[in-house]
Amino acid sequence: MRPFAPIGLVPDGGATWHLVRAMGYKRAYQAIIEGRKIPAAECLALGLANQVVKSAGFAAAVLAYAKGLAERAPLALRYSKQLARSAMSTTLDACIREEAALQNITIASRDSREAVASLLAKAHAGLQGTLNATSRDPFTVIRKEESMQLGSSISAVITGGASGLGAAHRAAPRRQWREGGPFRPERREGRGPRGRVGRCVLPRGRDLRGPGGCRVCQGPRCHWQERILVNCAGTGNAIKTAGFDKATGQPKHFPMAAFEKIIQINLIGTFRCIAKSAVGMLALALEQGERGVIINTASVAAQDGQMGQAAYSASKAGVVGMTLPVARDLMNEGIRVNTILPGIFDTPLLAAAPEKVRAALAASVPFPKRLGHPDEFASSSRR
Asked: What's the pTM value of the predicted model, to 2 decimals?
């Protein structure tokens, strides 16, 4: 408190909030206006500090304390912290209900069973923060071997699979199958430009702006409900917000129809596919604790848009912005949602650009100075 009062300032950084809760109003106010230095022993007595350690033994004390925490049940530590924070601003009844809900989760956890068994056997428990695979806890921590595994029984849907990043995702299962992978591609069947990968029908040329644009499979030929959705469908344009027409010299602005088209396809189309796929996944049984996963494609332009990319950047920023809310909407149902922000990739959309433009874009990449390969993006989404 010493730096504030003597120079006519008030505490900042939340110091007042912490002091009032730790010391009470009167003591906190006294400490603030007096501006005195509070000794370590007094801080410990007032609850302003949890532990007092001499500077010479600080590093050793911190390591010892961290080691002790690491040997405790991670789930219990996490939920205890959640409860303690919640208890500061909630009622007793609400706190009891939250304690009961979290206690049900920890009791059903593998950590709890291992800890009880180790206690009875007087042995050390190797706790890893693991819940039962069937738990509906929104913060489930699942070991790698318990996560949903790709196989011939898993269906995947890839939007925009006709070319570019989406086509790379289509090609990956075929390549993996040739190399002994578990995700078996199916032969092309039926009429029309349709390719099947795994147990997934990938229609080409669908317009995601309409309600029927993301209906991947319908009718008697319909395969299983997908557990994986990869949203790669998208488009872009390069138009300045306002400028002068090169032909007439007259001022003009970004055509609203062109702006709305990009938003409809890249943002609304992506969400439409998410919603349709997710509602289908809800009918699936849990597979190693999961119902499915949704991977969206945004762009580095969502955070670093260039000249002429107002519509494209807005659409991709929207995809990034909705990722966390959608993930929270679906977390209790065992559906994971992620979004990848790729940089500049060598796709058919970019192939139409002049070679000088392509070279300049490649040179703008920090390292390595080249365009990304679509199969590299497909590889990142499989991890």
From this structure: 0.56
**Residues with a known catalytic role:** 312
Number of helices and strands (H, E) in the chain?
14, 8
How many structural domains compose the chain?
3
Of 123, 144, 165, the position where a domain reaches its end is 144
Running DSSP on this structure, what letter comes out for residue 365? S
Looking up residue 88, the CATH number of its domain turns out to be: 1.10.12.10
Among 91, 120, 144, the domain-final residue is 144
Same domain for 95 and 153, yes or no, is no
Q: Kindly state whether residue 62 falls inside one of the protein's structural domains.
A: no
> Does a structural domain hold residue 64?
no
Place of tokens 């070991």: 143
* 281 and 331 co-located in one domain: yes
Neighbours of 25 (CB within 10 A): 10
Residues 100-149 have pLDDT tens digits of: 888 887 777 777 777 777 777 766 555 555 555 444 444 444 444 445 56
Query: Which DSSP string corresponds to 10-40?
Result: ---TTHHHHHHHHH-HHHHHHHHHHTPPPPH
Q: Are residues 89 and 184 in the same domain?
A: no
Give me the pLDDT at residue 215, please: 53
346 and 209 co-located in one domain = yes
Residue 157 lies in a domain: yes
- The domain in which residue 364 lies consists of 147-381
Q: What is the CATH number of the domain that holds 282?
A: 3.40.50.720
